Task: structure prediction
Amino acid sequence: MTANTSVKVPAGTTVTAPNGTSVTVGGSSDTIITQAGAVVNVPASATGPANNVVTTGQAPGSGLSTSALSVTSLAGSATTNVNVVDGTGAAAVFWGGGHLAMDSSGNIILSDRGSLRKVTQAGVVTTLTPQGSWDGVAIDPSGDIYGSGYVQGIAGSPPTFEASLQEFSASGTYQQLFANWESSSSNFSVGTGGLAMDSKGALFLADVANNRIVKFSVGSNTWAVFSGSGTSGNQDGAGTAATFTLYALPDLAIDSNDNLYVRSLGTVRKIAPDGTVTTITSQLQTGGPIAVDKSGNIYTSGIQAINRIAGDGSVVSYPFTNTTDFITSMVTDSSGNLYVGTRGIGAQIFKITFPND
Result:
């Protein structure tokens, strides 16, 4: 294909970009974004309607890009997640499945099976503290780290799970905050979920146990439901009139204007600073990871794919075949690079740079 041309093709068509990346059209009314010089192959078995568009121009909406992502495995073993080990690059071992945050020096701070760990841009992994039960992670401008989590209460029948926030200060001091702010005798996910801090120092939690967003004011030691009724659903609205269906251990992202973003099953939801919830896009694969960059692009994951979502809700998916493990959390840096953490056969931290489509 030459530059700035488009062609309609049926499902089953294969599009191979000049860089060798290949995708197969599997849907209906899809857009495939590729580069000049791409080869389009329509096999004899592809006899359906030619209602998919392959384009080398500027796509106006959603699509699947054949542009290759630049991916680096920053740290973590690809073959094991047993016996967690500090180290450099592939010599480090993560349990995986925790949340990621980025500090002002470009270090990745993550929760990893309850511990708090750090990964430098050189891939050096160290454990900051084994204290606490770390899940969601957020960092303030001073370098103090906050985490969501829970502790098991005094043994009883049945035992209780008691949620708290916690802080690991830049000077290395650990303390619990908001001890036992919620509890349960049956749901061990109380207090867990993605954590984010706004420009005023308030903390927000994607409270997966109760399908809501909770706001914590650290200075006054108070908390309140910020958005979501607690009932499962995907209803937009103001404050507690909205509903969420939070999945697994969802990420929570925040942009430079203090708008929050969360995955609610297959939708991406935006929560404004006044608590009003709107849907950015829907019909994505069910999942929890989400991040937002300084330009307002939103990132989520699919099955061996990374989705980049513009403010108007249009989605471009990029093939991500560097691992078959599940992406469990995401964060961006000030330069627009995306970092993802995985969980599966191994557990790794990947650094991803996007092409200029």
